[in-house]
Fold this protein.
Amino acid sequence: MVQTSILPEEAERFGRLATDWWVPDGRSAMLHKLNPVRLKYLRDQIDQHWQCDECSRRPLEGKTALDVGCGAGLLAEPLARLGATVTGIDASPEVIEVAWEHARRQGLEIDYRGGDVHELEGQFDLITAMEVIEHVSDPASFVKALAERLAPGGLLVMSTPNATGWSRLLMIAIGEGLGQIPRGTHDFERFIGPERIKQLLADAGLKCLDTEGIAWSPRRGLHLSEDLRLNYLVAAARA
């Protein structure tokens, strides 16, 4: 029996957002605000992991990258501009179609695929899975699939909401309640705390290299922080 992480209702929900995924003030506006924060962390981890020149514009030159749950390419496109040969995979065919078209207009060659990471072959130097694990059917199986796709010496970076009352308040009660995030995007029962993520990584033969929070304040908006209560990022490599 072929394993899958895909929840059909989740794929359908995100597919309905495809048409305005790239509209900064559209239904995916929160992703546009979140993306620069994720990229800042990702660039720092890339520079540390591969001892890159922090001033280099293409630190991923010659490396392969896989963006799991890529959506319409908000992260995949910057990875390509950083020099990587990028593959993006998503469960929603609608967002993959939008991703292909947007990359084409930007003059970027990105291998977008619809489907499940379990079905993918090959290994990649860098794997990203941002705001994905809380939407899959089996987090342990999902992390193991990521580990199998990670090349020796590679780097995995994930982000996800924390399983706290603070995240429930800001992301669901306020974010979804006030329409800043599409209603129904999150199920608090699927939120995962850092200690559980670390255990899932260890069970998959990976070690956690770093964790950092994504916090929010009225003055700074979304920003990197030592405060993990709202959302957090994890960097990992083979143990």
The first strand starts at residue 64 and ends at 68. The two ends are 29 Å apart (CA to CA). Residues 29-50 form the longest helix (22 residues).
